[in-house]
Amino acid sequence: MITFYHAPNSRSGTVAIAIEEMGLSGEIETKIVSVPRQDGSGGPDAANPHPEKKVPALEVDGTLVTERAAILALLSELFPEAPTAIPPGHPDRGPFLMWLAYYAGVVEPLIMGMVCEVSDSPIWITTYRDMAAMAERMESALADRDYLLESGFSAADLIMASPYMWKRDWLPKVPVIEAWFERVKGRPAVQAVAMRDNP
Predict the structure, then answer these.
(1) What is the pLDDT of residue 156?
(2) What's the rounded Cα separation, in Å, for the pair 150 and 3?
(3) Would the pTM count as exceeding 0.90?
(4) Tens-digit pLDDT profile for residues 56-71
(5) pLDDT tens digit string along 129-153?
(6) To 5 degrees, how large is the angle CA 13–CA 14–CA 20?
(7) DSSP letters of the chain?
(8) What's the average model confidence in pLDDT over 26-42?
């Protein structure tokens, strides 16, 4: 049995969209939980098994997995035949894992550094690179394709696009990246989850 713990309009939206894209709504039970919000609303939910009461969390036969990158990679392993799955053995598996790790280790810290106004610090740049380097890397990957992977759309696109769903102004002002974001944002699964999360 697989249970997904989701809080609408939170980071777990990336996993909710991936589940929709992969056609797994019938295979995975979704439980809505509350989480503490920046505006002071919400709060820890006793029904949420995440050790920090955050989302996303995925329970697979009693084993708990947290963190978006890990959950997205695991879903592709558990459901290798699902649409957009990039399972072990797939030619794009390495690049897929690279983008998931790049998001968690570089992109999110870069954006948080920008929001906290510390991203121009030499230590920050040395550790996480900078926004221009990130944009260059994305632009290069998208130069001859619609999505980040040669095989097409995947959860790598979802996680890389996720911060810009919250604030479009953060998106690098590069035509090929802006066009990619519009393609990701316009996907039916993205729209379906947005409708469910905001009835």
Answers:
(1) 98
(2) 31
(3) yes
(4) 999 999 999 999 999 9
(5) 678 889 999 999 999 999 999 999 9
(6) 85
(7) -EEEEE-SSSTTHHHHHHHHHTT-TTTSEEEE-----TTS-----TT---TTS-S-EEEETTEEEESHHHHHHHHHHH-TTSTT---TT-TTHHHHHHHHHHIIIIIHHHHHHHHTT-TTSHHHHHHH--HHHHHHHHHHHTTTSSSSBTTB--HHHHHHHHHHHH-GGGS---HHHHHHHHHHHTSHHHHHHHHHH--
(8) 92
Inter-residue contact 57 to 5 (CB < 8 Å): yes
Domains observed in the chain: 2-86+191-197 (3.40.30.10), 93-187 (1.20.1050.10)
